[in-house]
Amino acid sequence: MNKVTSLKVVLSAGITLTLSGCFSNTSMIMDATGAKKGELPAFQQPDFTNAQADFRKKLEQYHNTNQMPVDTSSYSSCNLSQKTLQDISGFTIIADLLDTTRKNKDSKKSLTARIGQDASSAAGQDIQQTYHWQGGALYASTIDCQKLTNNSDASNVSFLIDSQYLIKTTGANFNGTHSITEQKHVQRITPDHIVSIGLSSTVMGDDFTKDFGTKLALSLSNLKDPSFIYTYKKGNDQLNMIEAPSSPGIYFTQHFITLNKEEQRIRSYRYTGAVHDGVGRSLNGKAQGLQESFGKYGSNLCFDQGELVQKSDCETF
Questions:
Q1: 3-state SS track over 277-293
Q2: Which of 67, 125, 271, 311 could disulfide-link 253, Cβ–Cβ 3.0 to 4.6 Å?
Q3: What is the pLDDT of residues 87-114, one digit of tens each?
Q4: Would you say which domain of life the source belongs to (predicted)?
Q5: What does DSSP assign to residue 174?
Q6: Tens digit of pLDDT for each residue in 60-81?
Q7: How far apart are CA 43 and CA 50, in angstroms?
């Protein structure tokens, strides 16, 4: 994995994990998982323990100021193309994933297709989503701006990036509706690791909330307020910690381990509070092998190259 791709994974992983707290509130999560407020999982790695302490410190700063916990007094605006900003912000990888999902939708085996078919049968038509870039800006020191301007390699640059994109949803009960997603990211570079802090929020269009079920789900998810995302990456390990607005005080943690860089075999451990609530596995960016969920509503699913399959000997790397 090259440096630019590595950065995209850091940002997109954080964005993806943001969704894990949606459509739940604190009491429901505590009941389902046994998690407690303010808890984080215990790790033996000193680096992880230090990252957890930094997460708590930065989260407290954010709650006290409602601002990103970073001193931007020495930052200036970098003159970068919108395409470069899309790549650095993680928008490109999200849009590419959407295109791939759409192309694979005709596959009868794909989970996306099955979900689409269920929605189609219930609502009379399928759901489609399109992503539209709305603009962004990146701020860094003069020296780091020059580095980005010269080669666009963001992996060695400390920066603050603001980005906004439009998600248009059509079909089913969402005809003509939309949502606006805003992302803010701070990246801090040290000689041996990367720390990324992000805020992610979504505002739904008026038509999106016409039916009672949607209104209830959105009231629980509180998408208009940003999720606080902290990512620590060093070597083959990446640690994501999140507080979602739908469940204040409950922290979601995901530990990604790259087992094979050539094949991009990744195992991930999920925690809600201090409770271990699941294990995921992926190969080259697609779900692969046994996907385990623990807790009150736990279940196991088997995937092969991103497709849900029925197997008695599901892979467990």
A1: EEEEEEECCEECEEEEE
A2: 271
A3: 888 888 888 777 766 666 555 444 444 4
A4: Bacteria
A5: -
A6: 998 998 888 877 788 899 999 9
A7: 10
